[in-house]
UniProtKB/TrEMBL annotation:
It comes from the Bacteria. The keyword Transferase applies. Pathway: Cofactor biosynthesis; adenosylcobalamin biosynthesis; adenosylcobalamin from cob(II)yrinate a,c-diamide: step 2/7. Belongs to the Cob(I)alamin adenosyltransferase family. One of its GO terms (biological process) is cobalamin biosynthetic process. The keyword Endoplasmic reticulum does not apply. It comes from Paenibacillus xylanivorans. It catalyses: 2 cob(II)alamin + reduced [electron-transfer flavoprotein] + 2 ATP = 2 adenosylcob(III)alamin + 2 triphosphate + oxidized [electron-transfer flavoprotein] + 3 H(+); 2 cob(II)yrinate a,c diamide + reduced [electron-transfer flavoprotein] + 2 ATP = 2 adenosylcob(III)yrinate a,c-diamide + 2 triphosphate + oxidized [electron-transfer flavoprotein] + 3 H(+). Keywords: ATP-binding, Cobalamin biosynthesis, Nucleotide-binding, Transferase. Homotrimer. GO terms for molecular function: ATP binding; corrinoid adenosyltransferase activity. This is Corrinoid adenosyltransferase. Its EC number is 2.5.1.17. Residues 3-169 form the Cobalamin adenosyltransferase-like domain.
Length: 193
């Protein structure tokens, strides 16, 4: 099997059920998800260099990589039956459980924080922002065609997940989050007071 096909040389690409221009909203959406998946892989490679303190996170990120492929697949179909969708609302619900679990480890936050801290945390913040862009691309696509709404929900919850685990990465490595000093106190969590 050859890697290059030359079929895209004129600016079109194949999607499941047809061909579109390479900057079509559908390609932008699943392409951004693919970009996100690459950054998740980078985060896993940083975990693999750590001292075993992130094995739970590593397993979750590996599962997320599989699910991101599912998201891209669901968005790549020009026409698909709802019964063939791979992404389900239960996946977002499971992310919420993981978010709650990791957030228990995090110190109280009152102000906005700046992306940064440890290398792993910084990479997870990159994942968060690329995930938000992927969500925006899915919303744009959904404005003019039917898409699996569970993909939007999943991406929305996933960006929250990345925010929380970026903070957990800092907490486990005893690196302080960097507060945005011009921020007022915007987060009030009674359970952490």
């Amino acid at each position: 099997m050859g890697i290059y096909t030359r079929t895209g040389d004129e600016g079109q690409t194949s999607v499941i059920g047809g061909r579109v221009i390479k900057d079509d909203d559908r390609v932008e959406a699943y392409g951004t998800i693919d970009e996100l998946n690459c950054f998740v892989g980078q985060a896993i490679s940083f975990i693999d260099q750590a001292n075993g303190e992130f094995e739970d996170l590593r397993e979750h990120l590996l599962e997320i990589q599989q699910e991101l492929f599912d998201c891209g697949s669901d968005l790549a179909f020009v026409k698909i039956s709802e019964t063939k969708y791979k992404v389900r609302d239960e996946m977002a619900t499971r992310l919420e459980q993981w978010i709650d679990q990791y957030d228990e480890e995090n110190p109280k936050v009152e102000r906005f924080i700046l992306p940064g801290g440890s290398l792993l945390s910084s990479t997870l913040h990159v994942c968060r922002t690329v995930c938000r862009r992927a969500e925006r691309r899915a919303v744009t696509l959904g404005q003019h065609t039917d898409i699996n709404p569970s993909v939007r929900r999943y991406l929305n919850r996933l960006s929250d997940y990345f925010f929380v685990v970026a903070r957990t990465a800092n907490a486990r490595q005893q690196v302080a989050d960097i507060e945005y000093v011009r921020s007022k106190k915007v987060f009030r969590r009674k359970d952490k007071e």
